[in-house]
From TrEMBL:
Source organism of the structure: Candidatus Colwellbacteria bacterium CG10_big_fil_rev_8_21_14_0_10_41_28
Gene name, Swiss-Prot/TrEMBL: lysA
Subunit structure comment from the entry: Homodimer.
Phylogenetic lineage: Bacteria, Candidatus Colwelliibacteriota
Name of this protein: Diaminopimelate decarboxylase
GO BP annotations listed: lysine biosynthetic process via diaminopimelate
Residues annotated to bind substrate: R270, R306, Y310, E337, Y365
């Protein structure tokens, strides 16, 4: 989002013009940002056998999947639904990595049937897979007792975590692998989402590569996702080049020792799409009491749950009043929950009823975590590329909501 002559733009298009045509609330994505972020990873990570698998759950709009495919991305999915969606968007089964957290037997059968590469998540899954498909190749997700994330709910490793095969189970896994002549061709680790310090990511990579020496038939090392983005003005962009140097050294020495080039997989979600998206909403009401001002907008935790669920920070901009003085307000949604709050005591430029407010960096875990809670439609989604505006998902028609209840 940029400001030109006191008006806010995405690409070459004035946001107010988009809202006039498509209404609010509205998710708008800037294609250029996704392209830049993808190319940044691709160009700055020097290890030659890098495969980027976009984490589809971050934003599963088919148009964005197609865009990422055209840029050279593969995908990582966590359910049959997201796998089918990826196939529909044109990805080949060989371009999909399936993370099997909590997968049912029927789901594992689906993965086997489609010849998609799994990263199995438990001893039971490996046993089931081996019985049904002896002699086949599997990846496994490990929990090496390391976890990190922007919130405890996004931390996916460590002793308190349900994710992955715990390090203490490796002996057991090797026994089952032998029993069914399975081949472990990949190791995955995803320690969490929104990892605040890239050094933690590096440390986890070290630990995974250290343990990888125990597995002889590896074709890939999968470091998962988790790269954070600067949500607050004081936050810094992750130094991808610095990270690349560390990973490159680790992977090159592993490949050298093995006498073959191993693939390096990463599964970024947030990093690729968060900064491309804004959620635009209209101010519907303002109340002041007990020294607090509550500015209510026509969206809420049903459309962007991050603030309510993780107390996440999103920058807020009154795009209707670019020059007015700021005042401190609580920006709240229109859902009947007291946690439906986007910001408390935050400076926003003089909000008035009917103003448009932009919630920034909403491209990841925004629409994909949205719901029909309170019986309100989901917003439409728009993709802007320079001077082109494309409706990439319609607002949920109210009649559809009535049908589904
Ligand atoms: C297995 C796995 N890979 C990748 C990701 C993407 O994480 P992020 O969006 O933080 O990059 C997730 C999300 O938590 C995940 O569970």
């Amino acid at each position: 989002m940029q400001i030109k002559r006191n008006k806010f733009y995405i690409g070459d298009i004035k946001i107010e013009d988009i809202i006039q045509k498509y209404g609010s609330p509205l998710y708008i994505y800037d294609q250029k940002v996704i392209e830049e972020k993808f190319n940044n990873l691709k160009d700055k990570i020097e290890y030659p056998f890098l495969k980027i698998h976009y984490a589809v759950k971050a934003n599963s709009n088919t148009h964005l999947l197609k865009l990422l495919r055209s840029l050279g991305s593969n995908v990582e999915v966590v359910s049959e639904g997201l796998a089918r969606l990826s196939l529909k968007a044109g990805f080949k089964p060989s371009q999909i990595i399936y993370t099997c957290n909590g997968a049912e037997k029927e789901e594992l059968d689906f993965i086997m049937g489609k010849k998609i590469q799994p990263n199995l998540d438990s001893v039971n899954q490996v046993e089931y897979w081996g019985k049904k498909n002896p002699g086949s190749k599997i990846g496994i997700r490990l929990n090496l007792n390391m976890g990190s994330g922007h919130h405890e709910h996004t931390t996916t490793g460590g002793s308190e975590s349900k994710f992955g095969i715990h390090i203490s189970e490796i002996k057991n896994i090797k026994r089952i692998v032998k029993k069914y002549n399975l081949i472990i061709n990949g190791l995955q680790q995803h320690i969490g989402s929104g990892i605040p310090d890239p050094k933690t990511f590096e440390k986890a990579a070290h630990a995974l590569l250290k343990i990888s020496y125990q597995f002889e038939d590896l074709e890939y090392i999968d470091l998962g996702g988790g790269l954070d983005i600067p949500y607050r003005p004081k936050d810094k962009e992750v130094d991808i080049k610095g990270l690349s140097n560390v990973i490159d050294d680790l992977m090159s020495s592993l490949s050298k020792m093995r006498g073959k080039d191993l693939n390096l997989i990463i599964e970024p979600g947030r990093y690729l799409v968060a900064q491309s998206g804004v959620l635009i909403a209209k101010v519907t009401d303002i109340k002041t009491h007990s020294g607090n001002t509550f500015v209510s907008i026509n969206t809420g935790m049903n459309h962007l749950i991050r603030s309510a669920m993780y107390s996440s920070y999103h920058e807020l901009v009154n795009i209707s009043k670019p020059k007015d003085r700021s005042r401190k307000v609580n920006l709240v949604g229109n859902v009947c929950e007291s946690s439906d709050v986007f910001a408390k005591n935050r400076s926003i430029r003089n909000p008035q009823v009917d103003d448009l407010v932009a919630i920034l960096d909403a491209g990841a875990y925004g629409y994909s975590m949205s719901s029909l809670y309170n019986g309100r439609p989901k917003p439409a989604e728009i993709l802007v590329s320079k001077d082109k505006v494309k409706l990439i998902r319609e607002r949920t028609p109210l009649d559809d909501i009535l049908e589904s209840f």
